[in-house]
Amino acid sequence: MKKFNSVFWSVLGAGAFAAASAVPLMNQLGFTPDAEKIVIIPGHDANPVEVRDLGGKSVLKLPAAMVGEWEFSGEETQVYDFSSVNKPGTYRLFRNGEYLGNPIAVAPDVYEDLTKAALKWFYFQRAGMALEPQYAGKWARAAGHMDDKVVVYGTDKATAKNFAEATGTPVQKNPKTKYIKSARGWYDAGDYGKYIVNSGITVWTLLALYEEFTPYMDSLRWNIPRKFEKLPAILEEVRYNLDWMLTMQDKDGGVYHKVSSLNFCGSIAPENDGATRYAIIKNLTASLDFAGVMAQASVIYSKFDKAYADKMLKAAEAAYAWAKKNPTAFYKQPSDVQTGSYAPGDENGKDEFRFAAAELFAAFAKSGDAAKAAPYLADLKANPFTPNGAWWGDMNMIAAFRVAMDSAAFAGAGDDGKALVEDARKTVLNEANNLRAVGDTSAYRLPAFPWSWNWGSNSAMANNGMVLIHAYLLTGDRSYVDGAQQDMDYLLGKNPMEISYVTGFGYRSARNPHHRPSESDFVDDPVPGMLVGGPHLGKQDIDLNGTEHWKCPNYAAADKPALAYLDNRCSYATNEVAINWNAPLAYLAGALQAIYNAGVKPAKK
After folding, report:
1. Rounded to whole angstroms, how far apart are CA atoms 238 and 411?
2. Alpha-carbon distance 401 to 398, whole Å?
3. Strand arrangement of the beta sheet that strand 67-70 belongs to
4. Which of 139, 491, 522, 524 is the most buried (most CB within 10 A)?
């Protein structure tokens, strides 16, 4: 099998076979005038392609493209670039006098509604709040999971033994049940759990969108209930989850992993889930992810609410100190807990320490407190960057983003800080350059690695786009924006499934997400703006023996990762939704729109 970036090219002869009625695969929302504009046409055809406006006027003729082979779908394709079409309007592709596929829009604000919908989806994920019709429309629902009396796992008789086994501690003979109040927050995915680790990277990503494109994000409004009118809409939404995260910190500084029941519930509405909810096991990764996000948020919210910002920074310090005292306190899923574990098998905590130390140093350095900043710089120096990351299981790239983007704060700490900045820049740019090399040569023009095809592959594509955007912010090199555009194109229809993986956007979009609120709301249309997980070969949701009615029909015939997708509520492996998947979608859409918008530039560091 060919390597991913080794594309087989052949020159078409005049007598080459013409594929019948090939459908162009493209970004179904369209493009801004100065964006790179790529269309993929599967098969091979020796005839030229013409771009016409809706009045029938020819605006561009493209000769037949060479043929490439993409190993992740097994297809031959032809790649057509019509980036020179930059006049706003609607266009169609023609070949042999017949039009191909759907109209293509070129418009200045083509991703603004998508950005707002991707962000508003977090409102639809709110726990402990009724979603009123004036905000939620036909998706209005009652409040569920108030979480005003959450059992601390291990303090009741039902869980004491399994807690001891998971943590390696003695069993309490006469446990006294302890409760915490843990209201607010976002449901994590298609289930009703609330998870610190996943909230960590999600909140960081949304706050990064605000930090790096402040003028644009300050200008965006969408219809959500407002409690803090001075906050931009994105910061209002994020605060709803930050408030919950703060409830998860114990008095000693450690942070619980999650709030959930012991098992996933069925396809029921939030208000109908009456299972006991637990705050489950303090641990190092949750505490460090919490510390990093609280430090980041303290800087951003300080100009709006200093008391709240100070509270978060103190919480971050305490969580980091707890992690330093408990360096081997990794999360182990208890045997009676079946909800999401968010614990990679090879965990060593180095990436989380890297992330938390970077954020805490930046927070104190920006406030002018060099003495408090210094220990975090020392920890970061002792824990060098690795060429990994931008997902919840590896926060390395997120730490590199912080150091590289806040270069002045780190470089101001002397030679050690300057060396860290250089290492961070290399980490980000090496990853971005590798992505560009793949994107520029693959037969689908997709910057992705072989390991991108895993659970949540669509989020991997969005996160790859986020790496490329950061490379652009660091260098000003517009080719990185082109790479990020390619990732966006894939998510919005330039893929072998000919589908927009974002609900409610595009000519053909995912309609049946694995998402309990959607499964129980008696509304045909899904909430718009959800990014579904995407194709991969794991197929964990297949009913292999024909008896597991809650699993999917066998789609094992799909033997290529880019084809192994099922738009069905049963497909938790390919069609679930999650906050950490929607966050990079929002980042990518918002960043591209901000960059393309005339007069809107990234926030300077």
Report:
1. 30
2. 5
3. 38-42, 75-81, 67-70
4. 491
Structure tokens at 488: 């966006």
Closest CA to 390 of 475, 456, 317, 306: 456
How far apart are the C-alpha atoms of 566 and 549, rounded to whole Å?
16
Task: Assess contact for 245 and 335: CB atoms under 8 A.
Answer: no
Residues 6+ apart with CB under 8 A from 141: 130, 131, 269, 270, 271, 517, 521
pLDDT the model gives residue 8: 27
Query: CA-CA distance, 377 to 415, in Å (whole number)?
Result: 11
CA contacts within 13 A on the Cβ side of 529: 26
Nearest Cα residue to 456 out of 189, 197, 208, 263: 189
pLDDT tens digits for range 514-560:
999 999 999 999 999 999 999 999 999 998 777 777 789 878 678 99
Amino acid in the structure at residue 469: I
Q: Which positions are catalytic? A: 191, 514, 567, 576
Q: What is the pLDDT of residues 292-340, one digit of tens each?
A: 999 999 999 999 999 999 999 999 999 999 999 999 999 999 999 999 9
Which token pair is 204? 């960081």
pLDDT score of 440: 94
User: Hey, CA dihedral for 283, 288, 294, 298, is it positive or negative?
Assistant: positive
**Single-letter amino acid, residue 22:** A
Per residue in 443-500, pLDDT (tens digit) is 999 999 999 999 999 999 999 999 999 999 999 999 999 999 999 999 999 999 999 9
- DSSP character at residue 376: H
Residue with tokens 């969108």: 209
What is the DSSP code string of 272-332? G-----EEEEE-HHHHHHHHHHHHHHHHHHTTT-HHHHHHHHHHHHHHHHHHHH-TT----
Give strand pairing partners of 91: 53, 104
Buried b (16+ CB within 10 A) or exposed e, 393-407: bbbbbbbbbbbbbbb
Backbone dihedral region for residue 164 (phi beyond 0: left; psi -120 to 50: alpha; all else: beta): alpha
Residue 366 has pLDDT above 50, yes or no: yes
Distance CA 37, CA 116 (A): 23
Cβ count near 21 (within 10 Å): 7
* Cα–Cα distance for residue pair 246/241, rounded to 1 Å: 9
539-574 burial, b if ≥16 CB within 10 A, otherwise e?
A: bebbeeeeeeeebbeebeebebbbbbbbbbbbbbbb
